[in-house]
Specification:
The chain is of the alpha+beta class. It has one helix and five strands, in the order E-H-E-E-E-E. Strands 1-5-4-3-2 form a five-stranded antiparallel sheet, with helices on one face.
Amino acid sequence: MLLVPGGADAALAGAVGFYEANGFKSEGVAQLHRGTYRIVMVAMNRDHSATDTNVTIALNLG
């Protein structure tokens, strides 16, 4: 889990952009893959704040 500045939509878009720039392909909202690696991400404003967001990234192999 990462704590990032900004709202959840912007934080999630930034995280997806990072992984796409590193060779991952989008297969749905906040779901990406590259080879046998799969990533699923969730972003939620921290304590209902628009200025801090928790981004959770799950990586699965296989």
